[in-house]
């Protein structure tokens, strides 16, 4: 799937969302709420040990009234949330006697947390009884007609958030009774309920259990149960009452929208839908909603769209009780059965008026017009009677204003019996290519300004799904919307830059320019192929456009010329006259008119030609030649469906096309990905049966693990997994390890482990069929017993290359647990905190599968090419035959291995190996004196093997099989002495016994056999002629480990599956960074065998505490939850995970900065013993330090273009630290500079380019990138810029902070604004550690890298040194205690940098000294490079640190427009601030 991008757009600014974020000054300054917090809870928070005493006047007057007066503004709520009012005041002070205002304030703050994607429920977990009381009071307030609709809406949102968090035990306990079977007490008639119960014995059993529970309860419990079973019913009646009220206010409409969202959430998950769907259908919620005045009001389009989504889920084709999805045929049969019931009742009770209805075929009466016409003959009383006979509700309580008249009952009948589209029908109608209508539809435009105040008519990715088809349908809708959203942003950005204008009627010119779009003449239609049999659209439509690249820069021209076949381009019709329309008699401008956009059509590239019609295949070669032209003719394939519609009208759309637009390659994969999702939605491709229920979120969460599956493998060869017997014993704690019967005592690797089944215990009594809700699943045995055996690895030949490559990693017990689980069939989830070696675990799993199951194929998936290449490089280094490895996708070119592992590279490798092995065949033939051209081809080599080698070896075997044959006789009989004359000698050691000589001889024959085995595999490549056939044969027949990115899998899913490709195992690396649909597609890239998927293993490796998938749109990320990964969802569902618990990357002191996120994480012994971890960082007092950077030149963070956030002071400070390290001798390759925002990354690169790039003293660091981009990477020394000075921003997501803090091995230096980050509640654990050290950079003079100085415990207490005192004058920063501690912590040569200017001056002086040394060493200026010689003169004037900055001249502060255009199209959270 293409990586998420951010595109600058005026429509995307979302001023309301941005302004809703409070700044640090508003939280920390002298605002009303900040002063209130300091007075009542912040100052005393750390001293409290018991319950907090809450003052009601503070709650009512100072908090509630202030918020209510301003209609509960988001910013004020976020200010209170940032001031920790919930954690420090509201919840500690809550009790049964608390006021309603207290409850409502908790609700408001919880809602604010949830909108910010912060954990809101963990705080309540230690007091479940109080939370239960709080939740019930919230439920009561939700149906309290005495409070305002605005407040009720906030309470309803709280309940919505609760039902979205059913993975939380305290939430699940409160929500489950509200949707249990007891709500069926509210069905219209007892007869209807009994009929439903009689049709399903399991449901009847549940009803009886519910009734018994009520009958046995005391009075207080009965009252609670009655409230629980009537709450939803009462709430729905309240909704109907609002819908039919006379004058509806905006706040009531918002309540209705939220309630429809709530009902949709209930209907879209099976546990909540199971009984709710029956009640909602009985209450006729959808017909009532459709006929209501609120629904029909033209202004309430969002309510109508939400209603459509609720309709979709209400009538979704799934069995509410079993969860089985109906096929299209089964759904139609169910529909026909309902019509048959209608016909029987109609004929029995209304023979005179409904005979035609009763005798008609189903197809003629299942549409609204037909059915309405047939029922029109009935009177009002007869309509009501028919409705009653059909067991449909005909009355409501008098308290609501819903009149049950003929129109209403007719709508009920029509909605009940009309034939509805299935989700497959809906998906079939969705186009994967956008037009101006789909790009500018109101539903998509609502996502532009989403701020959480209103719902959206979008499906959500939930904890559970109704079916696999439901999941695929949701993914299709959401990914399509997100893709079209990004495309529209690209178009808006290009048109903004192009500045279309109309100087003459009917003519549009472009005053600006954009590298992503070019003006063109209208396309030429080259060919329209006639429709295929049965179709009414052209089979293909081919067009051509001409572009002129003369006026664009060279790099832009090359980008246009690098377009490849199947790339999608966009043909735009732009009419500037449309944007000139004014309100003067013409009404407001539409979105399209504001952009001057008339139409949009997508087209796929077929090929690129030059001006003479010659295909350009090699752009570089073309421009190196003569007579080159800047004119290009691009041949395109148009969308046939759109073309047919466009040409049927009076105006041909293509006559108005005047602009062509492209998108960057990485983000333009939307069409093949959407097509793959659509094809899966319409197909019957199932999941593996053992994985189905766990994927949907039902059943036993551990049901897919190997211990619960019947096909568990009892005996597995773990080869080099264990290094020795001690390692084996240490790695399997809690298990009984016994040598097998044929060995005794300890012995060396390799080890074969066999599970010993414990005998089944006999029980006299009949076991109960009842299962307690909280009962743990039975274990296989209390203590597992393993029998261990070994074997002697075979001798594969006398050459060093024949020796197997063995693992040298001493795996930890949890790593071994993960390897054992991954080698067994089933689902394995490996949680790998930073530095714990999850890549090594995945590699060893693949290695074990490869050798234990040689007939199986493994699919290897990773989020990025970089992560995949790292994993693939480790696999290549193992004992795996390279001919069985295949790397698909363009990232193979970056793979740092000797061989080429792409499809075509593998084919070439096979042919190269053939030539090498054929030479060996010739040499072998010569060594035995066999005449003839045996090495001409793989085929002739096979004949040679059959005619000569096999008989010779058979003769040798026969001669040596007798035990009486001596070692000398075997050596004499060996037929290949001459062939192995170039092997290490002696081939047969003189003192070798008979068994050793035979083993050497067999090893030699295995070496020879491998030659002919390899040539036999090459034979098909000699027969096949087309490269495509060879590549496909390689994929389907030869490769056993196939690696690709999740994006490539999504793009090529249909193509790969159509080849008949089958695989048995899937291993995903960084699975928590992959969106759920990208997780799913690799599980469904093959067609079923005999109706079943052959998939046996799924191994997911990742870390849900690090970054999630990057989704730039706030609406899709937060509302639709599109950032959810399968990995994180399964963890939430309670699927067993294996958490790796020993890190070996970083110093223990650095790992402590993120260990609080991983309670069981420890450090491997080598981090405490190896020299590099024990020695200090040369020139630095501390191995990690947070450095406070105040405003630089009066500025903190800036935003030169939208969402492009920069901080010049931090950029200069980071570069200065880098320069200082380089002057001390640190290798540039060991230093990486990270930023939290793309704008800051660009600024740091600019500063580095100006100060360091051309200066050989400094050079460039290994990497300058964003934190998001650097996940999975590491380096010895990390310099990190936090950038923000007004608010915390995205780092408040602690997953990103975890990534940022865990990239460094030996040194971490963070530049940021202390005031912003130290008070953030979510980040407090890390910053409490960081700020134990002074926040001014502490250097150590007189050292060069590497130093011998040992790293001491130099942490100073919370006080400051050298005059760096606490801003509030706290006594902990003063006095003798600090002086003594500072003296203890002092390091000889210590120097404190007071700021960026101070450090700049220090680096400048060091640079001058270094230049002087170079001059002396090289005996004259002539030997010194010009750049170095000029450094002394340039630093004073140009280096911003310690000098004046001329803004905008060198790119260090002002971003040029072209750079900004590129810069804002970036991946990662750093691109956008919400």
Structure write-up:
It is built from 59 helices and 31 strands. Strand 18, helix 45 (1076-1080) and strand 19 (1097-1102) form a beta-alpha-beta unit. The longest helix has 31 residues, at 468-498. The radius of gyration is 36 Å and the shape is globular. The chain starts with 14 loop residues before the first helix and ends in an 11-residue tail after the last helix. Mean pLDDT is 85; it is low at 1-19, 763-781, 1356-1384 and 1421-1474.
Total number of helices: 59
The overall strand count is 31
Please state how the strands of the largest beta sheet are arranged side by side: 3-9-6-7-8-5-4
Radius of gyration: 36 Å
Question: Which strand-content bin applies to the residues?
Answer: 5-15%
- The 3D shape can be described as globular
Helix content: 40-55%
Distance between the first and last residues' Cα: 24 Å
User: Structural class, judged by helices and strands?
Assistant: alpha/beta
Q: Characterize the largest beta sheet: strand count, sense, and whether it forms a barrel.
A: 7 strands, antiparallel
Unreliable parts: 1-19, 763-781, 1356-1384, 1421-1474
């Amino acid at each position: 799937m293409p990586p998420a991008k951010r595109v600058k757009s005026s429509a995307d600014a979302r001023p309301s969302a941005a302004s809703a974020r409070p700044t640090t000054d508003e939280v920390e300054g002298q605002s009303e709420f900040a002063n209130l917090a300091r007075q009542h809870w912040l100052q005393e928070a750390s001293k409290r040990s018991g319950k907090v005493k809450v003052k009601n006047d503070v709650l009512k007057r100072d908090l509630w009234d202030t918020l209510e007066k301003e209609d509960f503004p988001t910013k004020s709520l976020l200010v209170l949330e940032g001031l920790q009012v919930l954690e420090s005041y509201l919840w500690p002070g809550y009790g049964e006697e608390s006021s309603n205002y207290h409850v409502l304030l908790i609700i408001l703050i919880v809602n604010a947390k949830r909108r910010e994607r912060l954990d809101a429920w963990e705080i309540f977990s230690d007091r479940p009884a109080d939370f239960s009381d709080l939740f019930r009071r919230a439920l009561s307030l939700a149906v309290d007609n005495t409070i305002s609709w605005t407040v009720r809406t906030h309470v309803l949102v709280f309940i919505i958030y609760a039902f979205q968090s059913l993975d939380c035990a305290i939430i699940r306990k409160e929500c489950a009774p509200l949707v249990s079977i007891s709500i069926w007490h509210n069905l219209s008639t007892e007869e209807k309920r009994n009929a439903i119960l009689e049709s399903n014995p399991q449901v009847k059993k549940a009803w009886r259990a519910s009734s018994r529970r009520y009958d046995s309860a005391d009075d207080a419990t009965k009252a609670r149960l009655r409230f629980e079973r009537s709450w939803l019913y009462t709430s729905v009646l309240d909704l109907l009452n609002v819908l039919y009220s006379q004058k509806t206010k905006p706040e009531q409409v918002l309540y209705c929208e939220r309630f429809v969202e709530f009902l949709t959430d209930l209907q879209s998950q099976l546990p909540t839908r199971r009984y709710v769907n029956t009640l909602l259908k009985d209450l006729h919620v959808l017909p009532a909603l459709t006929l209501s005045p609120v629904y029909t009001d033209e202004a309430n389009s969002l309510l109508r769209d939400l209603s459509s989504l609720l309709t979709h889920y209400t009538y979704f084709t799934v069995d509410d009780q079993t969860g089985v999805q109906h096929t299209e045929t089964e759904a139609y049969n169910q529909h026909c059965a309902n019509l048959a019931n209608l016909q029987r009742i109609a004929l029995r009770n209304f023979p005179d008026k409904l005979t035609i209805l009763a005798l008609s075929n189903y197809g003629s009466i299942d549409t609204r017009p037909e059915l309405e016409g047939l029922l029109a003959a009935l009177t009002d009383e007869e309509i009501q009677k028919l409705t009653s006979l059909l067991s449909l509700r005909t009355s409501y309580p008098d308290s609501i204003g819903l009149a049950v008249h003929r129109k209403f009952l007719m709508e009920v009948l029509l909605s009940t019996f009309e034939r509805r589209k299935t989700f497959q029908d809906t998906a079939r109608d969705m186009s994967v290519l956008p037009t101006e209508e789909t790009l500018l539809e109101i539903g998509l435009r609502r996502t532009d300004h989403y701020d959480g105040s209103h719902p959206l008519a979008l499906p959500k990715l939930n904890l559970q799904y109704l079916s696999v088809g439901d999941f695929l349908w949701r993914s299709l809708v959401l990914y399509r919307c997100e893709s079209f959203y990004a495309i529209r942003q690209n178009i808006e950005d290009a048109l903004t830059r192009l500045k279309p204008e109309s100087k003459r009627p009917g003519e549009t010119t472009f005053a600006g320019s954009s590298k992503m779009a070019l003006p063109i003449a209208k396309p030429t239609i080259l060919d329209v192929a006639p429709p295929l049999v049965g179709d009414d659209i052209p089979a293909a439509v081919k067009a051509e456009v001409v572009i002129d690249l003369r006026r664009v820069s060279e790099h832009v021209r090359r980008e246009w010329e690098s377009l490849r076949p199947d790339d999608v381009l966009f043909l735009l019709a732009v009419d500037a006259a449309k944007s000139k329309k004014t309100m003067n008699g013409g009404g407001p401008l539409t979105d399209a008119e504001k952009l001057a956009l008339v139409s949009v059509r997508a087209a796929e590239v077929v090929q690129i030609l030059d001006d003479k019609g010659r295909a350009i295949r090699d752009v570089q070669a073309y421009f190196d030649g003569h007579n080159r032209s800047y004119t290009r003719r691009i041949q395109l394939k148009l969308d046939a469906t759109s073309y047919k519609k466009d040409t049927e009208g009076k105006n041909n759309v293509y006559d108005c096309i005047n602009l062509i637009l492209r998108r960057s390659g990485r983000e333009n994969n939307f069409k093949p990905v959407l097509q793959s999702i659509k094809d899966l939605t319409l197909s019957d491709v199932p999941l593996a049966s053992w994985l189905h229920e766990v994927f949907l979120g039902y059943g036993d969460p551990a049901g897919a693990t190997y211990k619960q599956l019947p096909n568990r493998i009892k005996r597995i060869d773990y080869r080099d997994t264990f290094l020795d017997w001690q390692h084996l014993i240490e790695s399997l704690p809690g298990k009984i390890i016994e040598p097998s019967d044929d060995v005794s005592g300890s012995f060396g690797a390799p080890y074969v482990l066999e599970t010993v089944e414990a005998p089944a215990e006999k029980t006299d009594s009949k076991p109960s069929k009842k299962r307690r809700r909280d009962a743990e699943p039975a274990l296989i045995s209390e203590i597992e017993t393993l029998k261990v055996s070994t074997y002697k690895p075979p001798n594969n030949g006398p050459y060093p290359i024949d020796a197997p490559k063995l693992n040298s990693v001493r795996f930890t017990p949890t790593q071994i647990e993960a390897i054992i689980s991954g080698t067994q069939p089933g689902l394995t989830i490996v949680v790998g905190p930073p530095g714990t070696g999850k890549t090594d675990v995945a590699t060893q799993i693949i290695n074990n599968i490869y050798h234990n199951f040689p007939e199986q194929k493994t699919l290897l998936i990773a989020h990025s090419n970089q992560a995949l290449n790292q994993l693939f490089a480790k696999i290549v280094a193992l004992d795996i035959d390279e001919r069985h490895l295949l790397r698909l996708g363009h990232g193979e070119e970056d793979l740092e291995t000797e061989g080429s592992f792409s499809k075509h590279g593998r084919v070439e490798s096979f042919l190269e190996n053939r030539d090498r092995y054929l030479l060996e065949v010739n040499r072998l033939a010569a060594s035995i004196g066999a005449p003839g051209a045996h090495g001409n081809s793989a085929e002739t080599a096979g004949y040679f093997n059959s005619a000569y080698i096999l008989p010779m070896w058979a003769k040798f075997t026969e001669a040596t099989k007798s035990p009486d044959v001596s070692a000398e006789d075997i050596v004499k009989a060996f037929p290949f002495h001459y062939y192995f004359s170039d092997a290490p000698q002696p081939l047969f050691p003189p003192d070798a016994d008979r068994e050793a000589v035979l083993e050497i001889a067999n090893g030699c024959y295995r070496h020879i056999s491998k030659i002919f085995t390899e040539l036999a595999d090459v034979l098909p490549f000699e027969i096949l002629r087309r490269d495509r056939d060879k590549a496909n044969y390689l994929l389907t027949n030869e490769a056993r480990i196939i690696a690709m990115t999740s994006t490539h899998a999504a793009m090529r899913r249909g193509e790969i599956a159509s080849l008949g490709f089958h695989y048995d195992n899937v291993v995903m690396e960084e699975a928590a960074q992959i969106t759920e649909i990208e997780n799913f597609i690799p599980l469904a890239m093959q067609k079923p065998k005999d109706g079943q998927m052959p998939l046996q293993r799924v191994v997911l490796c990742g870390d849900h505490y690090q970054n999630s998938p990057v989704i730039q749109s706030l609406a899709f990320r937060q509302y639709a939850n599109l950032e959810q990964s399968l990995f994180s969802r399964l963890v939430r569902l309670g699927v067993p995970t294996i958490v790796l618990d020993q890190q070996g990357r970083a110093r223990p002191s650095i790992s402590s900065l993120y260990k609080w996120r991983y309670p069981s994480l420890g450090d491997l012994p080598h981090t405490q013993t190896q020299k590099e971890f024990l020695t200090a960082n040369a020139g630095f007092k501390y191995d990690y330090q947070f450095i406070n950077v105040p405003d630089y030149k009066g500025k903190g963070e800036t935003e030169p273009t939208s969402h492009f956030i920069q901080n010049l002071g931090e950029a200069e400070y980071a570069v200065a630290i880098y320069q200082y390290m380089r002057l001390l001798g640190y290798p540039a390759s060991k230093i990486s500079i990270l930023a939290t925002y793309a704008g800051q990354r660009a600024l740091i690169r600019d500063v580095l380019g100006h100060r360091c790039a051309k200066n050989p003293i400094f050079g460039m660091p290994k990497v300058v990138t964003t934190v998001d981009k650097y996940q999975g990477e590491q380096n010895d020394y990390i310099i990190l810029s936090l950038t923000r000075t007004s608010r915390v921003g995205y780092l408040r997501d602690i997953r990103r902070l975890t990534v940022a803090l865990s990239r460094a091995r030996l040194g971490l230096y963070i530049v940021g604004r202390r005031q912003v980050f130290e008070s953030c509640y979510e980040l407090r654990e890390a910053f409490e550690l960081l700020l134990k050290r002074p926040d001014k950079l502490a250097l150590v003079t007189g050292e060069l890298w590497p130093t011998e100085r040992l790293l001491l415990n130099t942490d100073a207490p919370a006080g400051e040194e050298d005059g760096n005192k606490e801003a509030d004058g706290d006594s902990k920063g003063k006095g003798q205690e600090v002086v003594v501690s500072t003296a203890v912590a002092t390091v000889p040569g210590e120097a404190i940098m007071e700021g960026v200017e101070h450090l700049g001056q220090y680096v400048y002086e060091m640079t001058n000294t270094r230049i002087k040394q170079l001059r002396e060493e090289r005996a004259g200026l002539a030997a010194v490079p010009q750049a170095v010689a000029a450094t002394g003169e340039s630093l004073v004037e140009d280096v911003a640190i310690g000098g004046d900055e001329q803004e905008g001249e060198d790119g260090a502060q002002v971003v040029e427009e072209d750079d900004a255009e590129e810069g804002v199209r970036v991946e990662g959270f750093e691109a956008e601030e919400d």
